[in-house]
Amino acid sequence: MRILVLGGTGYLGRHVAVRLRALPGARILAADRSSTDGFGVDLAADPVERLAKTLAAAAPDAVVNCAGVTGGDPVTLAEVNARGPAVLCAALREAAPTARLVHLGSAAEYGPGVPGTPVTESAPACPVTLYGATKLAGTVAITASALDAVVLRVGNPVGPGAPVASLPGRLASLLRTAGPNPEAVLRLGDLSAHRDFVDVRDVARAVVLAVTTPGPLPPVLNIGGGTAVAVGELAEGLARRAGFSGRWEENADGSARSARVSWQCSDISAAARALGWRPAHTLDDALTALWSATTEAMP
């Protein structure tokens, strides 16, 4: 089975590629802007014709699109998160119309949730950030493509290798720098919001199942932990693992893509039915793995 992975050098993409390589008989083809194996792809800029030629040369049985950006200027967000999936679908229809497409979307597409009510895939998508809006545009392009495609709407991924652009990655970096100093002060945003955290390794396993499960799949599937957890609980759990004895200060300034969303939780029952997928790792597992990876990276 030939599987083309787009964005395989990013946080989610690296974990996805590792998991896919463990599939018996699978040949994983990496494609991104820095690819050296002949499959250079830039979804933000490549015309459909060029991308179609690349896809024809790769002749994939499945394509996994992990390419995406979580921040940046509006043009970059639109080019990567919205234009990218649209161009990819157009090129697939021309060059590999029978290949299965698995695209990583985001729970940010839903916007604010109702406390106590996990959101299902049929709920109206009402993003309140540019990030969520551009991810939703990418989802619409894929679900309207008539391809054999599924969008996995991923919650807040946590685990080894979390980038500093994410809250878990930033916290790990700050705790690593602070060390055991009891005088250390960490300045963080509002920690009262609730999020649906999911281990990045469980996300990768969901992708593998989406690639290999036979027959048509629902157009959108939620991939999350299925539980709303206060961000402060995540911070405290990571601080315990770091042996942090200082203190932190909260302020009202959060990330732009989390603004105005105080509660978010995904109903993951559809993924259980369609893929046989459920989270195998707890948040504690994810935090332990994240901190272990952080300490291993220390000089």
From TrEMBL:
Output the InterPro entries linked to this UniProt entry: Epimerase_deHydtase, Lipid_A_modif_metabolic_enz, NAD(P)-bd_dom_sf
Residue ranges annotated for the NAD-dependent epimerase/dehydratase domain, each copy included: 3-224
Which branch of life, at top level?
Bacteria
Q: Where is the signal peptide?
A: none
Know the name of this protein? NAD-dependent epimerase/dehydratase domain-containing protein
Q: Which organism is it from?
A: Streptomyces roseochromogenus subsp. oscitans DS 12.976
